[in-house]
Design brief:
This is Elongation of very long chain fatty acids protein. The protein is mainly alpha-helical and about 280 residues long. The protein has a domain of about 180 residues. About 75% of the residues lie in helices and about 0% in strands. The chain has 11 helices and no strands. The longest helix is centred in the C-terminal third of the chain and has 39 residues. It is globular and about 60 Å long.
């Protein structure tokens, strides 16, 4: 296993003023990272199996009636919302401490958040990318429209997240914190919608997609800053290869989410307005 090098001038956040759990405090980050260093490429196998279901599932369901699964989807979504909320709270606590005490550069370049309690939630995030593929199962079994953005995002995030964790990438502090936060809101929305108990206004959908677009912009900026620091001889736990891969992925996510936002919430409205004026 590779020996991990930290900036010794930075102390990890201790969570002394917060309620903690044994599964957090007893977390062995070295053991988990060692496993991912040796096995992160398993993500390619899981992705291949997932893609087989993405293309084979709709064909299988084509001549079969759709499943309702409303109750199961509600429970699934609320469970992921609670999980994401817990992860978001823990990582925001750590992030606020690092930025306040050590500054923006440390938040982008030091990987100390992989250790301790925040380290547990970093690992939990990486692992969660595998069960989150279950989102697609509900879409296919309920015979809903499966768009390219959905399965492309799931596949690439799984591979990228497992790769990044294995290589102790410091920018992950931003990527994980933002993703936990957006997923907490997104899965709560999914759960409420699936339950059928709430009428959700359109601005909620728009806000969630807008948050996803903003997330991709921030991720690109963070990558550029980390790359700048590293290439000017300053300490930054990343690599050029990772930065190029990360930038390419987040730029593709930005284009896809922005395109989805435009065509879902804007283009149709403009087209409809034009028709009304012509009439």
């Amino acid at each position: 296993m590779t020996t991990r090098v930290f900036n010794t001038s930075i102390d990890p956040f201790q969570y002394r003023n917060y309620r903690t759990f044994d599964f957090e405090t007893n977390f062995n980050y070295e053991e988990k990272i060692a496993w991912f260093e040796e096995n992160w490429t398993h993500a390619f196998l899981y992705s291949a199996l997932y893609l087989g279901f993405v293309f084979g599932g709709p064909a299988y369901m084509q001549t079969r009636p759709k499943y309702d699964l409303r109750s199961a989807l509600t429970i699934w979504s609320i469970t992921l919302a609670v999980f994401s909320s817990m992860g978001a709270v823990r990582l925001w606590q750590e992030y606020t401490y690092i930025v306040t005490k050590y500054g923006w550069k440390a938040s982008m370049c030091d990987p100390i958040f992989y250790t301790g309690i925040s380290g547990f939630w970093a690992w939990a995030f990486i692992v969660s990318k595998l069960p989150e593929l279950g989102d697609t199962v509900f879409i296919i079994l309920r015979k809903q429209r499966l768009i390219f953005l959905h399965w492309y995002h799931h596949v690439t995030v799984l591979i990228y997240a497992w790769y990044s964790y294995a290589h102790f990438i410091a920018q992950g502090r931003y990527f994980l914190t933002m993703n936990y936060t957006v997923h907490a809101v997104m899965y709560l929305y999914y759960g409420c919608r699936a339950s059928g108990m709430f009428k959700i206004p359109l601005y909620v959908n728009i806000s969630i997609t807008a948050l996803q677009v903003i997330q991709m912009v921030i991720a690109c900026v963070v990558n550029l800053y980390a790359h700048f620091y590293r290439n000017h001889g300053e300490y930054c736990s990343t690599t050029d290869a990772h930065t190029y891969i990360s930038l390419a992925l987040y730029m593709s996510y930005f284009v896809l989410f922005a395109n989805f936002f435009y065509h879902t919430y804007y283009a149709g409205k403009v087209k409809g307005h034009g028709k009304r004026k012509a009439t």
